[in-house]
Structure formats: structure tokens, C-alpha cells
Amino acid sequence: MKKNKVVVVLSGGMDSSALLVWAIAKNYDVTAITIDYGQRHRKEIGYAKLLCDGLLVEHKIVDLSSLKTLMGNTALTGDIDVPEGHYAAPTMKLTVVPNRNMVLLSTAICLAAECGASKVLYGAHSGDHPIYPDCRPEFVERLSRAAEVCWYDKITIEAPFVEKTKAEIVSIGAGLGLLWALTWSCYKGGETHCGSCGTCVERREAFMLAGVDDPTNYVDTTPIKTLIESMAE
User: Mind giving me the DSSP string for the chain?
Assistant: First the structure.
């Protein structure tokens, strides 16, 4: 039976990596696309490549780093410090890159049209909704409607995890044998996960809530329960 062709937007982080193995488990014919948009944590691109190499997945890396000048002075693309604290805190809005997912998904649509894929998948989840407008269900639905009419063949945008929590995604990835050590979360982009920025806190809390061992090395080794309690004070 011929497999359905899909393009997975793969950042190298936990959500998109879990989505990649989920798509493989669904018996899709998968091509992954990773985009360099000038992000501070470009280290994630190397992790995406390692994962695709290990899974024998076709992988396209696209250089759009020149767009950094159009994406504003954010904590990911400018000289603003990456905020520390809980990932749902209002300060995490400093990590919002204007129109980022529109750019990433539009680029993935180009690849889908070229390779004959009927779907583009990306890893937005419910924990993103308070902070990131382009991770909300209404964004997915409306962009998908546009994608359906932008090419001769119908292409849809789907976010299978959009109503799932980060902990649920960890459980899904663990159940499919994802090697979490081949994923990168920290927005600071150092040699080791810092352990205290919003994405590191989200990563650590998700493993704890899912009851899955976290293989990640962190600079800040404060127990995650203690760290979160201190943030609430």
C-alpha cells in the first residue's frame, strides 16, 4: 500500500521530535524540514539532523537566517536576554518571534507542493496557547484553509498535539521509543541546557508530570518542584 506523504516541521525540540516519531508510527512517508531563521538557539538544528539521521528520515535544512532582521528584537532573534521562570509567565512573550510559524509553515508548504505531500504537520501544543498566537487552534484552522487553495493539489496544515499537554507529548514520545537525548529545548543555546529558562522549566516539568526519566544534563540542578515553588513566591 502506498504511504501518504507528509512534511513534518522539525525544530529539534521535544514537541516536533515526538511528532516526527508519531508520524512514522502512523505509517506516513515522512520528509522533515528544519529552518534556520537566525535563532539564538541554532544548536537545535544539529539535534534535528541527528534525529533524522538515526531514523533514516529525509531531512531538508533551509537557511532563512536573513529574515532575522525582519523578525524584531526578541529574546530568540535579538539581544534581549532569554527570560527565566515558568514558561506560562507573561515575561515569556519576549520569546515570541512575530509571524514565525507563518514563515516556517509557508516554507514547508513549498516543500510539500514540490514533493507531493498532502499534509504539513507541526508540533503546537496546548501549553503554547497563552503565549504564542500562532500555536492556537484558530491559527492552524485558518492557515490550513489557505494552504488548501494555494496549489493544484490540496495541502492541509495539521497540529495533532494542539490540544495535548507537554506531559502528554512526553508520554507519547516515550511510548514510541523517542531518544529524548536527541532533542534540544534551551533557548539560551549554550553547551548545556541551562535548566532555568522558560523552555527548560517546561521540559523538566513535563518529564516529572509524565513520570518519565529525564536524560538531560542541566546547569541549574535545583529539583524542578523546588524551582517551580520558588517562582510562585
Answer: -PPPEEEEE--SSHHHHHHHHHHHHTT-EEEEEEEE---TTTHHHHHHHHHHHHHT-EEEEEE-GGGGGGS-S-TTTSSSPPPBS-TTSGGGGGG--TTHHHHHHHHHHHHHHHHT-SEEE----GGGTTT-GGGSHHHHHHHHHHHHTSSSS--EEE-TTTTS-HHHHHHHHHHTT--GGG----TT--SSB-SSBHHHHHHHHHHHHHT------BS--S-HHHHHHHHH-
